[in-house]
Design brief:
single chain; alpha/beta; Rossmann fold; Alpha-Beta Plaits; 2 domains; eight-stranded mixed sheet; four-stranded antiparallel sheet; globular; binds the ligand O=P(O)(O)OC[C@H]1O[C@H](O[C@H]2O[C@H](CO)[C@@H](O)[C@H](O)[C@H]2O)[C@H](O)[C@@H](O)[C@@H]1O; magnesium; HAD_sf; EC 3.1.3.12; metal-binding; HAD-like_sf
């Protein structure tokens, strides 16, 4: 009797089996050649639980350890966030961690870059429209009768209006969409919508552009991207495009509060705790390797 090739047992817990063939190909490529894989992750909602006050946001307790265990096994680990890069590094606790000597944080949707090797942030010149919008915003919100509890987050290269603390956060958010789009356009800015936040920021870069450039820089042979919010949709699109160019990818959604992202994911995990569990599983070599 001829011996038939036996299916190999999946080395990860079944909870991490992607729902799509493309996702399974992406995961298989990552596991077959981890040293060619790029692991790219969003911060808020993906590596850090969502909290009402953005200044209180911190990486999930298991995140840094999981990243530090995984990073030496893969080509690169990058955090791609809407936060200023330095803020993500601080709130993440990413600096000076053994194992994360080559971590890169792309902040402000890719406009800024921090790397662990230099320990410094490279940032573009300030966009004059941000200063003008920042100056106008408090009076503007009063003028349009924004919901009580709406508040302004100062982000340096951008300025954001949050509604999570309003009595009806969703209605408060919706009521701001059009007026803030008009204000942003007047100052040459765009509105980046997120989870109960509308950010006014310079155009020209997004997480998809940032990810595509970083994949090229690293020469990655496969990509895992994990996110949770609308700002991550562009990165998902980049991974989908890379697949058509022969670079397998795995799209992971942290939670399913944002259906526009979750519906496109190959794998939906249980929030930052689920992301940490996935990273931990990827960092543990399957038996026999
Ligand atoms: O790209 P990200 O790393 O996901 O950053 C996107 C936004 O994250 C922050 O806001 C979100 O997290 C807050 C803290 O958990 C939460 O209070 C808020 O409702 C979320 O939208 C950050 O404050 C924003 O500036 C970022 O754009």
């Amino acid at each position: 009797m001829g011996s038939q090739p036996q299916p190999q047992p999946h080395p990860l817990p079944t909870a991490f089996t992607p729902a799509t063939p493309a996702g399974r190909d992406g995961l298989a490529a990552l596991l077959a050649a981890p040293d060619r894989a790029l692991i790219a992750l969003d911060f808020d909602g993906t590596l850090a639980d969502i909290v009402p006050d953005p200044e209180q946001s911190r990486a999930h307790p298991g995140a840094v350890g999981a990243l530090a265990a995984l990073a030496p096994r893969v080509a690169s680990v990058a955090v791609i966030t809407g936060r200023p890069a330095g803020v993500a590094v601080r709130y993440g606790g990413f600096a000076g961690v053994p194992g994360l000597e080559h971590l890169v944080v792309l902040g402000h949707y890719g406009a800024e870059r921090w790397d662990a090797v230099s320990g410094t942030v490279r940032a573009p010149a300030a966009h004059p429209g941000v200063r003008a919008a920042r100056a106008e915003l408090p009076g503007f919100l009063d003028g349009i009768g924004a919901w009580r509890g709406s508040w302004i987050e100062e982000k340096g290269q951008a300025v954001a209006v949050h509604t999570r603390r309003a009595e009806d956060p969703v209605r408060a958010f919706e009521s701001l969409r059009l007026p803030l789009a008009e204000l942003a356009a007047r100052h040459g800015l765009i509105v980046e919508p997120g989870r109960l936040v509308l950010e006014l920021r310079p155009p020209g870069v997004d997480k998809g552009v940032a990810l595509a450039e970083y994949v090229r820089e690293v020469g990655a042979g496969s990509v895992l991207y994990a996110g949770d919010d609308l700002g991550d949709v562009a990165a998902f699109s980049t991974v989908e495009k890379l697949r058509t160019e022969g670079i397998p990818g795995l799209l992971v959604c942290s939670g399913n509060e944002v259906p526009a992202l979750a519906d496109r994911a190959d794998l939906v995990v249980d929030g930052p705790a689920g992301v940490v569990a996935l990273l931990t599983a990827l960092a543990s070599p399957p038996a026999g390797t």
